[in-house]
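[09:14] KT: can someone run the structure on this one? pasting the chain below
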Amino acid sequence: MTEKKQSPSRKALRLRARAKNKKPKFVRAESWKYDRFSTAWRRPRGLDNKIRRKIKGWPPGPSMGYKGPKIARFLHPSGYKEVIVYNQEDLINVDPNTQAARIAHTVGKRKRAEIIAKAKELNIKILNVQLSAKAEAEEEEEEEEEEEEAEEQGEETEETEEAESEEETPEEEVEEEEAEEKAEEEQPEAKAKAEEQPKKEKKKPLEEKTPKAKSKPKKEKKQ
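[09:31] RB: done, structure tokens below
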């Protein structure tokens, strides 16, 4: 059983909320005059701009005096101070009473699961654990969709190949018939050639040559 975490001090959050209620809404100069201007704050740059010159009677602009309390600065709305975490080792430096971990967006699926498991052991709050779970679910859905699409494409290619093999064009049929006819015509010729070859190969046995008697040269008669 893990111990319950001590809730962080809410005093700083209360002070920040009180200061925010006193802070005026900073409006863009002359946004009340023209409909094409939004009320979102834009820093005035004109030389004669009354808000930039802080003239009395004009809306106020942001300044250092509207800063929130120092103890509430950089705090998460839950009251914890954020610490970005890249691996399990970074969790050791996190104080579970005052700090909360935020997994960096560059961390992969495997390391994210390891960090979440380690944070549960150390009783550390993770601020973006729901977002990471949603991201994992989306990744799994995308992988399943890709696999289904690949299977469908494979089935379609097989069907098209079978259809192409079954459906032969008339030109191909004519060519096949001509090839068969030629093969039938060539068969008797090949048989005849095969029968003639052994006849040619059978040669008559060589007759024994009898040595001829050498004829003596005739003597010329003397006259």
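[09:33] KT: thanks! Residues 129-166 form the longest helix (38 residues).
[09:34] RB: yep, looked fine to me
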